[in-house]
Amino acid sequence: MKKIVHPVIALLLLSVFIKPITIHGQNTPGLFDGKTLNGWKRLAGTADYKVEDGAIVGTTVLNSGNTFLVTEKEYGDFILELDTKIESPLSNSGVQTRSHFDPAGNNGKGKVYGRQFEIDPSDRKWSGGIYDEGRRDWLYPLDLNAKAKDAFKVGVYNHIRIECIGNEMRTWINGVAVADVVDTVDSKGFIGLQVHAVTKEEQAGKKVYFKNIHIQTKNLVQKPFPKDIYTVNYTSNSLSVHEKSSGWKLLYDGHTATGWHGATISSFPAKGWEYGEGVMHVLPSAGKEESGGGDVVTDALYSAFDLSFEFKLTPGANSGVKYFVTLSEVTKGSAIGLEYQVLDDKLHPDAKLGRDGDRTLASLYDLIRADKPERFIHPVGAWNTGRIIVYPNNHVEHYLNGVKVLEYERGSKSYRDLVAISKFVIWKNFGEAKEGHILLQDHGNEVFFRSIKIKTL
């Protein structure tokens, strides 16, 4: 005898065994139905995408450009969660967010551009970093959060979380917080899955997998983010909520000289500098130290700190950001201190002086050369981001545009050996003061600074 189940009872039974995926307790629609590529389209390259066992599988094709499987729909604010696996450390992939397509790009082959969650299984281990595909290059290299480099595992599924809420993009891998970028570019766009271009036979035929792709677009709540993770903030002279709660302070407000004075006077220089319209501006003069308004220093003293600043050079310019400046040394030129070199390496002669390039951009001036890949040097006339970290144990690091370019131990034997063969040997215990001012140098050339901020450690 055939049994008939009442429709209401049938629905109740289904609800027991079929549970919707939730993010923050809210049911979320799937971007991928697990069976077809409905709602998606391929752009740019010729790599292959198909569905296998409930996953979207992308396969590399020799001599194809970067290939993207993108949503037909655009998204603004969202929380995206998915699982991804890459089978080889020779491969590379990513997830596009709020991205766009230029059909005329790449000589008519088409170009996808926009912020990308990087999937990088190479020895560099920058998975979870944020890359601006087809446009500005790296926004958040994982040198900025080295503790997260081991979060991604090759050959197994990794859980990814991406938050794009307002102007902020944050990333997680397997529950580990990775990157935080505040960026006013792109309020909406498509979501895409990347198969990276390959040019070598051994890279062809490699697969990347994506499954359990779900998005939430309403009632969005940011997940707590650790306070020790650095934020890349492209909104000039401002601090995000996360930065403020993490202890960051602006050293320059974009409008006034509050908190600064001349290195040799008690007030801000009356000539040689401008500090309005969002920039701290060194005016050109004779091209020599202290030839204009002179150096400026912070009113406050600092010992252990994380200092971030943006700078823009003009052709042939020379300047610097100094730290542990005590103003006690006798000198005819610029005030004495450890210096993050700010220099046009190609046109200023100082780049060829010193030893082994230790007077080039981002170097510890006259002591240690900055090891900086060319692709991370923004051209003269564009803004670069410098960063100096002095830890309580006197370990010091210099960064340029998110990449660590040097490190040393202040006061160590190796440090003192370098000082002994430098121009600073004439000053006793050079660079070893307990605390000091932060200094912006007037070297007689036109240079711009902005977004100068500090966090005491």
Description of the structure:
This protein is mainly beta and 457 residues long. It has two domains: 21-216, Jelly Rolls; 236-456, Jelly Rolls, CATH 2.60.120. The protein has helices spanning 7-17, 241-245, 413-420, and strands at residues 22-23, 26-27, 40-44, 48-52, 55-59, 67-71, 78-86, 93-102, 111-119, 130-133, 137-140, 158-165, 168-173, 176-182, 190-195, 207-216, 232-233, 249-250, 260-262, 273-274, 280-282, 296-298, 305-313, 318-325, 338-343, 383-390, 395-400, 403-409, 437-440, 447-456. It has an eight-stranded mixed sheet with strand order 4-5-16-7-12-13-14-17, with no helix packed on it. Strands 18, 20, 21, 23, 26, 27, 28 and 30 form an eight-stranded antiparallel sheet that branches. A hairpin with a 2-residue loop joins β4 (48-52) and β5 (55-59). The longest helix is centred in the first third of the chain and has 11 residues, at 7-17. Mean pLDDT is 92; it is low at 1-27.
